[in-house]
Amino acid sequence: MEEELPRIREVLCREDLPENPNWRKEGYPNPHCWNVYELFMKAKEEGKDSILWQEARRIWWEAHWRLVGRYKRRRPFFKVYTCDVEKKMCIEESLDEDDIKRILREIIITGFETGITPRGAGIFREIFGRL
Predict the structure, then answer these.
(1) How many structural domains does the chain have?
(2) Containing domain of residue 66, as a range?
(3) Nearest-CA neighbor of 17 among 43, 47, 46, 44?
């Protein structure tokens, strides 16, 4: 990765996420934990034909459908940790509805920013409303 990630990171974990090869080095709680930006940038590096690209898109679509209230897969929401990668210490966050919406919006924005998902005015308006 070209850009350095911050020392303090919000990390999403769930068993169906792909394994993060750097999880031990970063001090994440388990191999299925990723910082959203880290996941999407790694997927972008690996390219559109990679499994990681497909997984990043799946996470993006899950965030989209959850945010607009039409998610039907019944997977639990991610466990979210705040991790200090220098100290190799993570604390699980207690999430309320506003926290969940903020995290979903971060996933959506990161997908747009990294090019994992196309920017679409209709999708943007559906998620963020008219500005």
Answers:
(1) 1
(2) 8-128
(3) 43
Please identify which residue in the block is written with the tokens 């390219």: 47
Q: Is the pLDDT of residue 131 over 50?
A: no
Place of tokens 């209709």: 122
Give 11: exposed, middle or buried? Use CB within 10 Å, 0-12, 13-18, 19+. buried
Tally Cβ neighbours within 10 Å of residue 102.
12
Q: What is the overall mean pLDDT for the chain?
A: 89
Q: What is the pLDDT of residues 26-48, one digit of tens each?
A: 999 999 999 999 999 999 999 99
- Average pLDDT (80-102) is 96
What is the predicted pLDDT for the residue at 73? 82
In a domain, 92, yes or no: yes
Residue 2 lies in a domain: no
Which residue shows structure tokens 């100290």? 87
Residue 3 lies in a domain: no
Task: Find all residues with CB under 8 Å of 26, minimum gap 6, and list them.
Answer: 9, 20, 83, 85, 88
Q: Is 40 among the domain residues?
A: yes
Judge contact between 41 and 100, C-beta under 8 A.
no
